[in-house]
Amino acid sequence: MKGYRFYLVYDDPTEARKATRKNPGNHTGNVIAVFTENPPFLSRGNALLECFAPVFFEADSPVAGDSASLDYLRENCKNISEGQARQIHPKMFKRLDSSD
After folding, report:
1. Residue 69 vs residues 1, 53, 83, 86: alpha-carbon distances, Å
2. What is the pLDDT of residue 100?
3. Does residue 14 carry a pLDDT above 60?
4. Count of beta carbons in the 10 Å neighbourhood of residue 17
5. How far apart are CA 78 and CA 20, in angstroms?
């Protein structure tokens, strides 16, 4: 799927740092899909990226349009492939596939 970068969400930044693509570790079961075609925008000094993000703190949560801080993505998330994201967060792809 072109135009998105996928980030696996972690509750704890320590877990995000320990995780690898082959061993994602203890994650929330949710993914953030960031639009790659739009540049970051600044809000109160924070770089924000447009995205689809989980609505609730439960695995495979429904998603909605949102913005994510670049710092949050770096600290609490791990970049993963589309294939991994599809397995972990099917509701994300129901939304993404319906918007095409």
Report:
1. 22, 12, 24, 23
2. 57
3. yes
4. 12
5. 8
Residue 7 forms beta bridges with which residues?
32, 79
- DSSP state at residue 2: T
First to last CA, the chain: 10
Sequence-ordered alpha helix ranges (H) in 1-100 = 13-18, 70-76, 82-88, 90-99
Number of domains, the chain? 1
pLDDT value of residue 94 = 94
Q: How far is residue 50's CA from residue 44's CA, in Å, rounded to a whole number?
A: 16
Distance between CA atoms of 7 and 32, rounded to whole angstroms? 5
Domain of 71, in residue numbers: 4-99
Is residue 20 within 8 A of residue 80, CB to CB? The reply is no
